[in-house]
Amino acid sequence: MDFDWSPAQRALRQTIIDTCAAHPAPEPDAEPAFPAALHRALGAAGVLGYGLPAPYGAGGGLLDLVLINETLAEHAPHAVSPCFVNQVCGALLAVGGNKAQKEELLPQLAAGSLTMAFALTEPQAGSDAAAIALQATPEGGHYRLSGEKLYATGCWDADYIITAARTTAEGKASRGSSLIMVPREATGLTLSRLNKIGGRDHASCHLRYAQVQVEAGLRIGAENGAWPLLLVGAGVERICVAATCIGAVSAALRDVVAFLQQREQFGQPIADFQAIRHTLADLATRHEAMRWLCYRAAWLAQRSGPAAAGAVSMAKLQATEEAGAILLEIMKLHGGLAYLAEHPAPRRLIETMLAFYAGGTAQIQRELIARQVLAAR
Ligand SMILES: Cc1cc2nc3c(=O)[nH]c(=O)nc-3n(C[C@H](O)[C@H](O)[C@H](O)COP(=O)(O)OP(=O)(O)OC[C@H]3O[C@@H](n4cnc5c(N)ncnc54)[C@H](O)[C@@H]3O)c2cc1C
User: Fold this and answer.
1) CB neighbours of 5 closer than 8 A, spacing ≥ 6?
2) Are 248 and 78 in contact (CB under 8 A)?
């Protein structure tokens, strides 16, 4: 067992830190805007190519994606969502795309010159993804799409929206759905931006498809073959989300330790009170546990793919629940300052709360874990 990053992975982490430092986050009250300059700079530095197979990208595996998302969440939280949404879309293309699609699209994703979004959730189909109803009717060399998608993140600035659609009306969606890349500018597609409390630089949208005609050549994978691809995408998304929670807590712990060492009450730095020292010890221990559960799940999934789904759900569940609780505790340790709008602690908690939903909620992760526990005994 090797618990250390390789020299190449250490260099990758430093590259991300340097690239983020050259593109500071926008002011909190700035108009929300896709962080295009940083995204392209991450592409130029080779960061966005990880997880995409060579020769189209840099190769690498889930542990590299963990390192990237953890580091971004710590140093440039506004760049996280565009990066991991592209990683999930890249994984769908890498596994299901044909040679021509990979040759054309993966190098552009790696360069940061092409962006994609992913639309599965619908108004009536959230946790129950198999309840999707958006229909794609085959017509000669085209599909005609009708229906709605909700929450799809990154659509506003995307070139393509990978849309999960029913291509067989009857029977289970898991056997009768396909993934279709819908161009953002397709006629009949309308997008409304949702008014989110966080992640505002990467807009989530309500999409309405009114008889949208899309070439059949833009389907990823086989017709009715969406579900095995979605399972791969879900695994990548859950691991990446867990990693972002680790990075957010790293940054929050660093800030609160500096504050507690500098701020004095009762004639001494607050960090010298035993009650506070023990709280910090507990938070650091819980942070360490998040890290190792996530790293091990990524390592397992890298080796055995969907068979590691239970471990991946455990990592996602524990990282999101712990991040929510730890970031709230850290807000309290900052005292009244953290109730001020400009303080980074509440903003970090709100941004990290996206992890509660992306890749499925805590209850859904528990359900997936329970299935594996019961099947194994
Ligand atoms: C900011 C944001 C960005 C998102 N981005 C995307 C995206 O890019 N693409 C995309 O396709 N989707 C996206 N989503 C959707 C996300 O995947 C869903 O929000 C999530 O799967 C939960 O679905 P829901 O919100 O409809 O909640 P619901 O499914 O309605 O659930 C409501 C509550 O009931 C619980 N619940 C539901 N079923 C069960 C059960 N069987 N047992 C116990 N409890 C249950 C849930 O855990 C939750 O607490 C995004 C969501 C948000 C908030």
Assistant:
1) 13, 67
2) no
CB of 204 closer than 8 Å to CB of 196: yes
pLDDT band at 305; cut points 50, 70, 90: confident
The residue with tokens 């710590």 is: 74
Q: pTM for the whole thing?
A: 0.97
Over residues 106-150, the pLDDT tens digits come to 999 999 999 999 999 999 999 999 999 999 999 989 999 999 999
Phi, psi of 267 (to 5 degrees): 80, 15
**What type of residue sits at position 268?**
Q
pLDDT the model gives residue 1: 75
- Tell whether ligand 1 has an atom less than 6 A from the beta carbon of residue 204: yes
Q: How far is the CA of 258 from the centre of ligand 1 (A)?
A: 36
Return the best residue to mutate from 85, 92, 127 for the ligand 1 pocket (most ligand atoms within 8 A of CB): 127
152 lines ligand 1 (CB under 6 A): yes
**Cα distances (angstroms) measured from residue 365 to each of 112, 320, 359:** 31, 11, 9
Share of the chain above pLDDT 70, in %: 100
d(CA 29, CA 321): 28
Stated length of the chain: 377
pLDDT for 377 equals 74
Identify the structural domains of the chain with CATH numbers, from first to last.
Answer: 7-114 (1.10.540.10), 117-224 (2.40.110.10), 227-376 (1.20.140.10)
186 is written with which tokens?
Answer: 């397709």
Rounded Cα distance, 175 and 167, in Å: 9
How many DSSP H helices and E strands does the chain contain?
10, 10
What number of other Cβ atoms are within 10 A of residue 338's Cβ?
21
As a three-state string, the secondary structure of 303-328 is: HHHHHHHHHHHHHHHHHHHHHHHHHH
Which residue's alpha carbon is nearest to atom 26 within ligand 1? 126
The atom number, within ligand 1, closest to the CA of 362 reads 47
Do the bridges between strand 135-139 and strand 177-183 make them parallel or antiparallel, or are there none, so unpaired? Answer: unpaired
Q: How far apart (Å, rounded) are the C-alpha atoms in residues 355 and 116?
A: 19
Give 204's strand partners: 153
Tens digits of per-residue pLDDT, 211-241?
A: 999 999 999 999 999 999 999 999 999 999 9
